[in-house]
């Protein structure tokens, strides 16, 4: 019976949790199933769902990136300042923001690979640096009133579908393709499965690690663009909980901190779980502090289930 349960959980655990959460709120909250609310859920998850795509690459490779929230804050302020104060054209500001995102990610990967220090520690340091820098530069004041053409990325629609949701879908498809259909994706899995074996197989560990973190920075910059456009403001505290929400979504989707397994599709399922849960709790009138408690409990649950599975596999 035990083996059947764990086999089922490995294959369908994320889908089961998604179905349970969806059914619970569908039954208890009448407004939940309205088309407007369901579309609102997708809009709410679009921003950090895009970021989760990059974080998934990092976690599958056996790493971690706690700095994505700081990247969202700093890069968002930079793009907003370029458009509002320096009157930089929107396409140029977007391009520069993406390049900065890639650079920030590559710096994380380069430091972690060169110093052979666990990425968790490195990105914790860069998270503190970026969060502090955002507060120092702005004194806590927001930047708002972005150009109307830029706001389209977060507030516009193509037909009845929000542009932010379309961007989320395109990003997830791109992440799935890179991870599942390319040689680079196989290198990511190999790096997370056994770094020494990957090195002996001829994989350049430093190069791949830098590319993975650069890719995470790139996807994070896209999420930042959508966030700026949707809120029409940039603040030093934007994205403050993104790192934990992203890790929770990835873990619920079956990606472990040890790396070597997981999929982009399951990560998207984890994003939907977090999004539906947040939306349903708001409909129930649960305050934001209690929501953080529940999200923390979910992350602990996902980590515990993974640890138990590993112990069973190792026979300990």
From TrEMBL:
Q: Which GO terms describe its cellular component?
A: plasma membrane
Its membrane topology, per UniProt? Multi-pass membrane protein
Q: Which domain of life is it from?
A: Bacteria
Subcellular location(s) of the protein: Cell membrane
Where does the UniProt entry say this protein principally localizes? membrane
Checking Pfam families in the record gives: BPD_transp_2
**What's one GO MF term for it?**
transmembrane transporter activity
Q: Which UniProt keywords apply?
A: Cell inner membrane, Cell membrane, Membrane, Transmembrane, Transmembrane helix, Transport
Where do transmembrane segments lie in this chain?
A: 12-33, 45-61, 92-113, 120-141, 161-179, 210-229, 264-286
- Name of the protein: ABC transporter permease
């Amino acid at each position: 019976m035990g083996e059947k349960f764990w086999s089922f959980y490995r294959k369908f655990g994320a889908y089961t949790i998604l179905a349970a959460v969806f059914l619970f709120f569908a039954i208890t909250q009448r407004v939940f199933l309205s088309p407007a609310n369901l579309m609102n859920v997708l809009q709410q998850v679009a921003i950090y769902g895009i970021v989760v795509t990059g974080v998934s690459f990092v976690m599958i490779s056996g790493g971690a990136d706690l700095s994505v929230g700081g990247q969202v804050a700093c890069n968002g302020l930079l793009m907003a300042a370029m458009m509002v104060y320096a009157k930089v054209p929107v396409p140029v500001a977007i391009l520069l923001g993406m390049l900065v995102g890639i650079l920030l990610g590559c710096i994380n990967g380069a430091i972690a690979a060169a110093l052979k220090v666990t990425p968790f520690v490195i990105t914790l340091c860069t998270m503190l640096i970026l969060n502090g820098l955002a507060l120092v530069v702005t004194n806590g004041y927001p930047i708002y009133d972005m150009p109307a053409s830029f706001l389209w990325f977060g507030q516009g629609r193509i037909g009845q579908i929000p542009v932010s949701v379309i961007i989320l879908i395109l990003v997830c498809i791109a992440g799935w393709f890179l991870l599942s259909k390319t040689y680079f994706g196989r290198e990511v899995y190999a790096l997370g499965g056994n770094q020494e074996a990957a090195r002996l197989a001829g994989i350049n560990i430093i190069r791949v690690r830098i590319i993975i973190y650069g890719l995470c920075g790139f996807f994070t910059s896209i999420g930042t663009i959508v966030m700026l456009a949707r809120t029409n403001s940039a603040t030093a505290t934007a994205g403050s909980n993104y790192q934990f929400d992203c890790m929770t979504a990835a873990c619920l989707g079956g990606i472990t901190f040890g790396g070597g397994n997981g999929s982009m599709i399951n990560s998207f399922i984890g994003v939907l779980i977090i999004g539906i849960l947040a939306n349903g709790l708001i409909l129930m009138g649960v305050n934001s502090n209690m929501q953080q408690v529940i999200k923390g409990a979910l992350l602990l649950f996902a980590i515990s289930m993974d640890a138990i599975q590993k112990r069973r596999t190792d026979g300990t």
